[in-house]
């Protein structure tokens, strides 16, 4: 059974930084894409960033230049999201995802002064 465990969320002031981690276990197959999505209250879930098994990266338009997705070189089933220059509109629950099939439980990110 595939499990995704996220960590690193929290409360941060505008302009601050946070780093999210996602560790996937139970995957007996090679994934195609791992990534991060987010959902703010009253809004649809949206793409934040994805990385393919081959290393190709895609970012959602609102986070380009501020967020960086990466993965553990020793364990390709672990990815990170470095979030810089955070804005109040980045406040959301952030979900880790594999192949648009498996989802983590989500971690809350709140940007507020």
Description:
The protein has 113 residues and is an all-beta fold. 0% of the residues lie in helices and 51% in strands. The protein is built from no helices and eleven strands. Strands 2, 4, 5, 6, 9, 10 and 11 form a seven-stranded mixed sheet that branches. It has a four-stranded antiparallel sheet with strand order 1-3-8-7, with no helix packed on it. The N and C termini lie far apart (40 Å).
Compact description:
The protein is mostly beta strands. It is built from no helices and eleven strands. The chain is globular.
Strand and helix map with partners:
Blueprint: E1 3-7, E2 10-12, E3 18-25, E4 33-39, E5 46-52, E6 57-59, E7 67-71, E8 78-83, E9 92-98, E10 102-103, E11 107-111
Parallel strand pairs: 2-11
Antiparallel strand pairs: 1-3, 3-8, 4-5, 4-9, 5-6, 7-8, 9-10, 9-11
Descriptive keywords:
113 residues, mainly beta, seven-stranded mixed sheet, four-stranded antiparallel sheet
Overall morphology: globular
End-to-end distance: 40 Å
How much helix is in the residues? under 10%
User: Pairing-aware structural class of the strands and helices?
Assistant: mainly beta
E-strand count: 11
